[in-house]
Every structure is written in C-alpha cells, then in structure tokens.
C-alpha cells in the first residue's frame, strides 16, 4: 500500500463500476480523495448541465461515503493554476480517466510532464469509449470519415480485445478532507428556477442509470429499430445524459446488450448508435477544427443570415410549425429532445431560416442535459450538410410531412403545444388550414414564420452559391 494519499480527478466519470482510475486509487491507497474541479466559466453556456452536474456531485458524494471516500469540489478559473499549486504538496499520487476532447487530452500532456518533474506518481486510464481513438483507423492509417466502415472496424476491434479482469472499488480505511475552500454542490445550480421540472423526470445517479438500461433492454430494445423514430412513444433509452456524465460506461451497455439471447435487430441498431457516439469522438479528435468551424471548408462561404427575430421564434417554439415548436418546448422543459425531432428542428433552423448551425449548436449546448461537444457539433453538422458522412444539404426536411409521418396522430405535438389540442389529425401539422371560430391563427398559435415552399427554394439557391 502506498502511504501517500490517493487523489482521483473526477471529470465525466460519476460511477464506481468500470471506473479504472478510481478503482486503482482505492487499491493502492488507504486514504482516497475524489475531487472535482468546477470551472464556472466553462459552464457559463451550459445552464441545464449545471443542474445535472450539481445533482451528480451530490449523489456521487453520498455513494462514495459508503467507501469512506470524500468527494471535494474545488472552484477554479484554470486547471493549470490549480495543478501548479497542487504539485508543490507532493504528498499524493494521482489518477484519472481520459476525456476524449482535444483540450482535455492536451492538458493531460502538460500534467504528465509537470508531475514527472516533481516525481509524483500518476496514472491515466481509458475513459468512456469502447476503443481508444487511435485503435480504429483505415488500413492506410488514416482516420475514417464515413460511419459504416468505421463501425464495422470498431466493433471487430472491440470484440477481438481480450477483456481485462473486472476490478471493483475497495473500501478505504478512513475518510479524510484534503482541499481547502471547497464548495458545496448546490452552489453549482443554475440561478433561475426553470430547471425545477427536471427533478420530476431525472435522477442523476449510477444505480438509476443501470436500472434504466436494464428496463430498456427488457421492455423496449426489441422494437428499438422502429420505435426510435417516433417521438410520441418511449422508443429510445433516454440514457444520453447518464452516458455523457459517465454514470454509465459504454462497455456496460455493450455487456448488457450482448448477453441477451436471442439476439435481435434492435440490439445491433442500439449498439450502432453507441457507435455513432464513438465515431463523433473520433472525428473531433482527428479533425478538431470542426469543434468551432465547418468540417467541410466549402461551407465557410455559405451565405447564412443573421436574423434574431427568427432565431428567437425558433428558440421559443413559436415558428408556426407544430413539430418544430413541440421539439423546442420539450427541450426547454425537460433538458432533452428526441433524436428525430433534433434533426427536424435543426434542419428547420439551417435550411428554412438559413441561420448558421453554430447558433443552433450554442442553444442546444445551453439547454441539453446530454450536451457533449462531439455529439452536438457532429449532430449539427450532420443536419447542416457540412459534416463528415452528413445528410446532403439539398435534402430538405418538410416539417409538415415529417410530422405526419413520425407523429401520425399528433400526440407528441399536443403534449408540448397544448394550444393545438383540439385540432384533428388532419390539421395538427398544418393548423393554418384549420377553419374554426374557436381557433384564431395569429392569436392562439402563430402563423408560420416562413412558407415551406419559398424557404426550400431559397435554401437551394443559397446552396448553389457554394
Ligand atoms: C442536432 C443534433 C444535436 C445533438 N446533440 C447531442 C448532444 O449534445 N449529446 C448527445 O449525447 N447526443 C446528441 N445528439 C444525438 C442524439 O440525438 C442523442 O444522443 C439521443 O437523442 C439521446 O437520446 P437517447 O439516449 O434516448 O438515445 P438512444 O437512441 O437510446 O441511443 C443510445 C445512445 O447512443 C448515443 N446516440 C444515439 N443517437 C446518436 C447520434 N445520432 N449521434 C451520436 N450518438 C448517438 C447516445 O449516447 C445515446 O444515449 C444530437 C443529434 C442532433 C441531430
């Protein structure tokens, strides 16, 4: 046993299972501290996630108490300043898991050399992916830019790996305090109370995540291929925030799915979605420019329009297109939006309103509990047509037909846009055709902010310019 204190730097790994860094710390040290570095500035545009983060810290601290481990939260403006001060102490060893974002990986390099200089023992472990980023490449050594061959190779690589021996977290001898001036998790909560509704829907905790996964596999995965398209039903797992914050490791998802017998198409489809997440993480690390700019440079000349009135109508769910408005209101109210609807509202913003995908990405970042840089920028660039393996720009979703196809009875729309609750199936996706004395378009519900056909032609003309 190492007599020093074992520090575990907690980032996106709020779990005790398959948490290699934390497990190693407890196996090497009698006294372990888990610490979270809260960079207020970094969360400034991630309001919804402040709620998930705060609750995750609170729940994980309780969970770690059972292992005599203290979780301490330190507020800092800069990781570098924090660590430069910390390494002067030298009375610790430190462990952490990778976060697959270029800035984090770059900082790891700095930390390695600073720790090495001071002869402080450290170890970094694999994070929340199936394969390491560099393990999945084309035969010529270059990164994949297309999903299907990426996932074929990634799956094969993962299956062929010799599974590492499953280790578990050990109970420490004594709970201790280590850092000064720690903050409490409640301090991280957003200032405005709009998140209150989240508390009726989500419980950010590892056990809950595993239970939800098992329920999903037992009850819904067999129908996932089909069910995932319909926002009016619970056809997907809704595990994305748990995955983002690491309450659930994707290896656990893989294990739970692959042990099912008989196999069904839903399972492979579900794992392929985990594959899209892996693909997106690979993309942002091989092509980091796409985190802030278009993956495809030819889109740099796209004539986006600045129009705050249209942008605000979109954000508020007041576009006059029911499926778009339902999605945007679901997002604000629950911190989550169905994938099909993310595609529809995204397409509407970039193609009908000709507003830059970066504005949509920014708004999603602020409102999504599952916000992840890889999935969000890749999702938006997929929709806009400027990403890798993206939907072509000229394929323009018709929000009326999308509604009629994926929300046939209008149940989803009626749940989120109650002012349309009396409209029949015939009119629910085109309320401007509904003629009734009790329903006044422009008063009860907005006129469409743009006409679909006109917007489509305008979008295609704009596209021709690049
Ligand atoms: C414009 C846009 C923005 C998006 N932003 C995010 C984001 O910030 N964070 C995020 O996690 N996902 C994002 N997605 C992907 C997807 O919409 C969500 O992962 C999914 O809706 C989460 O719900 P679920 O857990 O029920 O998914 P399920 O269908 O149950 O899928 C299981 C898991 O697979 C992964 N996954 C599913 N679909 C995708 C996908 N298309 N791309 C990448 N991974 C996927 C997620 O981790 C998800 O939790 C975005 C998609 C679009 C079109």
Structure description:
45% of the residues lie in helices and 6% in strands. It has 19 helices and five strands. The chain has helices at residues 20-28, 47-65, 79-86, 102-117, 147-160, 198-201, 206-219, 224-227, 240-244, 250-258, 265-286, 308-316, 322-334, 339-352, 357-367, 373-384, 399-406, 411-416, 452-464, and strands spanning 5-10, 32-38, 70-75, 92-97, 122-125. Strands 3-2-1-4-5 form a five-stranded parallel β-sheet, with helices on both faces. The chain starts with a strand and ends with a helix. The site of flavin-adenine dinucleotide (FAD) has 27 residues, from helix 9, helix 11, helix 14 and helix 16.
Key features of this structure:
466 residues, 3 domains, Serine Threonine Protein Phosphatase 5, Tetratricopeptide repeat, alpha/beta, Rossmann fold, 19 helices, five-stranded parallel β-sheet, binds flavin-adenine dinucleotide
SS elements, strand count: 5
Which class best fits the helix and strand makeup?
A: alpha/beta
Tell me the span between the first and last alpha carbons. 63 Å
Number of helices: 19
What order do the helices and strands follow?
Answer: EHEHEHEHEHHHHHHHHHHHHHHH
CATH superfamily of the largest domain: DNA Cyclobutane Dipyrimidine Photolyase, subunit A, domain 3
Query: Order of strands across the biggest sheet?
Result: 3-2-1-4-5
CATH class of the largest domain: Mainly Alpha
Please name the CATH topology of the largest domain: DNA Cyclobutane Dipyrimidine Photolyase, subunit A, domain 3
Task: Outline the low-pLDDT stretches.
Answer: none
Write down the Rg: 24 Å
What's the CATH architecture of the largest domain? Answer: Orthogonal Bundle
Bound molecules: flavin-adenine dinucleotide
If you average the pLDDT, what whole number results?
Answer: 97
Main sheet summary:
5 strands, parallel
List the domain count as a whole number.
3
């Amino acid at each position: 046993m190492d007599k020093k204190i074992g520090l575990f730097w907690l980032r996106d790994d709020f779990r005790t299972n398959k948490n290699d860094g934390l497990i190693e710390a407890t196996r090497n040290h009698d006294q372990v501290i888990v610490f979270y570095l809260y960079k207020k500035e970094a969360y400034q545009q991630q309001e919804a996630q402040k709620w998930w983060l705060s609750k995750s810290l609170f729940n994980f601290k309780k969970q770690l108490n059972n292992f005599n481990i203290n979780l301490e939260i330190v507020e800092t403006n800069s990781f570098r300043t924090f660590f430069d001060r910390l390494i002067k102490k030298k009375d610790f060893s430190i462990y952490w898991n990778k976060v697959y974002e270029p800035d984090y990986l770059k900082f790891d390099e700095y930390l390695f050399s600073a720790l090495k200089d001071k002869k402080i023992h450290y170890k970094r472990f694999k994070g929340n992916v199936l394969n390491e980023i560099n393990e999945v490449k084309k035969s010529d050594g270059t990164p994949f830019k297309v999903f299907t061959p990426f996932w074929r190779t990634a799956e094969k690589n993962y299956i062929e790996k010799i599974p590492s021996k499953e280790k578990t977290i050990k109970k420490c001898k004594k709970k201790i305090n280590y850092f000064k001036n720690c903050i409490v998790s409640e301090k991280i909560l957003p200032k405005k109370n709009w998140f209150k509704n989240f508390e009726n829907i989500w419980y950010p905790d590892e056990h809950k995540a595993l239970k939800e996964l098992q329920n999903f596999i037992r009850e819904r995965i067999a129908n996932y291929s089909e069910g995932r398209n319909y926002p009016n039903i619970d056809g997907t797992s809704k595990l994305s925030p748990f995955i983002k914050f690491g309450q659930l490791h994707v290896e656990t998802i893989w294990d739970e799915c692959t042990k099912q017998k008989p196999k069904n198409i839903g399972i492979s489809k579900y794992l392929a979605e985990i594959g899209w997440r892996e693909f997106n993480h690979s993309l942002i690390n091989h092509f980091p420019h796409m985190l802030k700019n278009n993956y495809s440079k030819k889109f740099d000349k796209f004539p986006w329009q600045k129009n705050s009135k249209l942008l605000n109508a979109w954000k508020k769910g007041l576009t006059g297109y029911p499926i778009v408005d339902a999605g945007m209101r679901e997002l604000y109210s629950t911190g989550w939006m169905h994938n099909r609807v993310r595609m529809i509202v995204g397409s509407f913003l970039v193609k009908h309103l000709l507003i830059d995908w970066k504005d949509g990405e920014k708004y999603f970042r602020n409102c999504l509990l599952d916000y992840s840089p890889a999935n969000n920028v890749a999702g938006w660039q997929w929709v806009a047509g400027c990403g890798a393996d993206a939907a072509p720009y000229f394929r323009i979703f018709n929000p009326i037909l999308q509604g009629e196809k994926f929300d046939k009875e209008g149940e989803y729309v009626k749940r989120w846009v109650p002012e349309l609750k009396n409209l029949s199936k015939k009119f629910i996706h085109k309320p401007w055709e509904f003629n009734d004395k009790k329903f006044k378009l422009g008063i009860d519900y907005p006129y469409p902010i743009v006409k679909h056909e006109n917007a489509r032609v305008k979008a295609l003309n704009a596209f021709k310019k690049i």
